[in-house]
Amino acid sequence: MASSQRMVVQPSAWLPDRCVTQDMLVSEGLWLNQSLPFNVTSSDTIFLFNCSPRPLVSPLNCTPSSLCHRYLNSSGQVDTKITLQCANDIDPCCTFAAGGMPSAYMIRLHNLGCRTFRSIIHLDPEKPAVQWEEGLEIQWTPPPEPVCRLNLISQGLPSVYLLV
Known about the structure:
Blueprint: E1 5-9, H1 22-26, E2 29-31, E3 38-40, E4 44-51, H2 67-74, H3 83-86, E5 94-97, E6 106-108, E7 114-121, E8 133-134, E9 136-140
Antiparallel strand pairs: 1-9, 2-6, 3-9, 4-5, 4-7, 7-8
């Protein structure tokens, strides 16, 4: 069986002076086709920003101690002009570990929920936020290699003539 392959996708750009990213307007977040072999890995920690109080249910951590606040205030990745738009008493930020259903295939953004997300790969809360690696890790299992049914090399033909 083939081992999983992984790639890292960089986050969508912030819109100027707003706690909204381009993917909110274009695709409402990340949507992977469940019939294809791609999924978001459990190595990703997702931060949701600019959230209405409506989606605040488990497994989201939307408390004042959530790591999303450290990211906003200490990572250097967020313009200080929009930090209060991303998390405040009315519109909190939330944190969750990706990988289970439905987050293995989608991170949904919408006006009645959260309007921005960021992902940190292999988040180590003991490290300073400036050392956290931003990106979204996606994995897939490649299809099995075809099996050669007839070995023509023994008949003197070059290997490019192997039949599958």
